[in-house]
Amino acid sequence: MSDHNEIDHVSGRSTTGHEWDGIKELNTPLPRWWVLTFYATIVWAIGYWVVYPAWPLVSGYTTGLFQYSTRASVSTDLADLEKLRGEKMAVLGNASLADIEKDPALLALARARGKTVFADNCAPCHGSGGAGAKGFPNLNDDDWLWGGSLDQIMQTIQFGARSGHAKTHEGQMLAFGRDGVLKKDEIVTVANYVRSLSGLSTAPKFDAAAGKKLFTENCTSCHGDNGKGNPELGAPNLTDQIWLYGSDEETLVETITNGRAGVMPAWVGRLDPVTVKALAVYVHSLGGGK
Amino acid sequence: MNKPVSPDELITDEDGPLYAPRKKVYPQSVSGRFRSIKWRLMAVCLGVYYLLPFVRWNRGLGAPDQAVLIDFPNRRFYFFFIELWPQEIYYFTGLLVLAALALFLMNALGGRIWCGYLCPQTVWTDLFYAVERLVEGDRRAQIKADAGPMTAKRAGRRVLKHAIWLMIAWWTGGAWVLYFADAPTLVRDLATFQAPAIAYVWIAILTASTYLLAGYMREQVCVYMCPWPRIQAALTDEWALNVTYKYDRGEPRCSVKKAFDIRALGEKAGDCIDCNQCVAVCPTGIDIRDGAQLGCIQCGLCIDACDAVMTKVSRRTGLIGYDNDINVQRRIAGKEEVFKSVRARTVVYAGLITVVCAVMLYALMSRTLLDVNVLHDRNPIAVRLSDGATRNGYTLRFLNKRGFDRVIAIDIDGPAEAKLHVIGADSVTPDRPMIVLGRDATTELRVLVTAPFDEKAEKSVPVTFRITDIGLGEVASATDHFVLP
Description:
A: two-stranded antiparallel ribbon, 4 strands, B: 5-stranded antiparallel β-sheet, 4-stranded antiparallel β-sheet, elongated, heme (chain A), CcoP_N_sf (chain A)
């Protein structure tokens, strides 16, 4: 700053005395309101240090007078949410599965809850709309490995399939080829026979009688005499149009050779009972429920 | 370095500071034709604004009985017999178009009628000026007091003025929130401090804005903030009537006595006696004799002031009046005055207003009170069933804009032999599902359409959901597509 109290000709204001190439800098101090606001923010910051967690220490930090912590805040919010949800969810908890589907308000509530839970927990395998993928069943269709009634769906969600839980669904497709039960050409024959069950084309030299014999000897114990499957064992219906892994000969040979044992985790203990209930209603209402 | 010079010496007309400080305006009270028109319009405008929320309108049981209500929580707008849903926001677009056209028409006919008589900024500022004059005295008293020292009496008056201003401002904000909730209930809740916090917040905001805009900003809003004066200047033409100083008659200005002398010599003397009354009464502090200008809101108060003076000096009134440039030129040329309110511009504006009104009226009369929207499932878009059939899922949203429940039947027109199933609504007639729609509400349902296996089926066919009100026969439909996996 210069001591000059020089006045600029054009603006009538004083200059700082600094001059470059004949251009002089006007003395334009920060506006008072700005400076005062700036001081106010400093005061505010000091107050903030005092009442809120602020400074890191060697093993910890200054906690502040309010003892505020974001973790505690989240816990409180979550508790509030649970409380809020609890009142509504209690109604769901007390209603039977069938009653929920009959009451439009309860159904809407269960579907809303089920939808979010499904997106968080089920979508990674079954897809966001439950459309499934190879090895992961489509939940929109009417073909169910372990049964498609409300109770059966809830049972499957709770305990899973081959999940290791004591009450889980057991039963798996054996590895007929790997374990040496069937020879390679026998596997091809039985694969063609399985294709014929649902009206799919078969290989030109396929021996239907041999296929039927092999099927009766090896497969009917689980898939039933006519190949209609058995939901008790999770054995799929082989006569319909829905194939979990694929219906082409190559895939069927692979299935028969190495077996299949897809796993669905048990959700009991991870999701609370009311949530599982809502989820069952949601999955049932996707359209395939029986 | 230059020798220090006093800044006053340096400021010339050519290079003065770029900033023009505000000169406080002290409009003098005036009476006359335009003043009384303004008083009446002010009473009407403020009356409508303050009292409209209390007007009742019976809409039947369960519906609000407030004639004008913006019901945000329930997403409804009520205006007497009209009830609008958020989907129908385009009616407001239509209203805005109408408002703009009406403004243009007013401008083509009589200049800034809106600015001078109807604009909220003008109405409230006028009211605040009236309060100011009532408490602190007229123009001269105020100028004198402001120039003198602050006395206890003056301070008391000032406090009283601000108190009245704040009361008006508060009541302005108070009336505003009444449009958003049941007015009588809200008034009671506000008085007993039971009203929601947001109501108080909005009252505070509007109190502050009214107080600042009408008490402090005043003519600066019109001169610096408002876009309309700029647009107006581009929309006006030589036929539009504007508040005009008839310089052909007024110039050269001279006192009554001097005019008498000049006229005795047979020379021309103007009728303007340069009394400055037109400037004294002007709420924006301009001199109308400088011609049409941005700051002139054309309120006509200078006409009243000038007419009063002209009457006193026994001259013809109307030295300042609603006039236009064409007539000034015609009078100078010694021709008759002409006023043309029917001309291409006004006819086009009036025509457009009629067309927009007709379109809006038609849209309003023919709007459906039953509607359905359809949203196809995105994932999966199609499902293959175990027997080879195909199923598509849809979300249907029904809109029942009537004030009573109604039963509707859903039919589909789509792929051959397609069946419809409604999730969660077991109907007594499974082939033609019927459901109940709640009054004045939307209902959302998930439906499944299943078509049997058909080798020749197309990959995608349109499917139409048609809903029929069983009682009234009203029909609505929505179309989407049915696709194969």
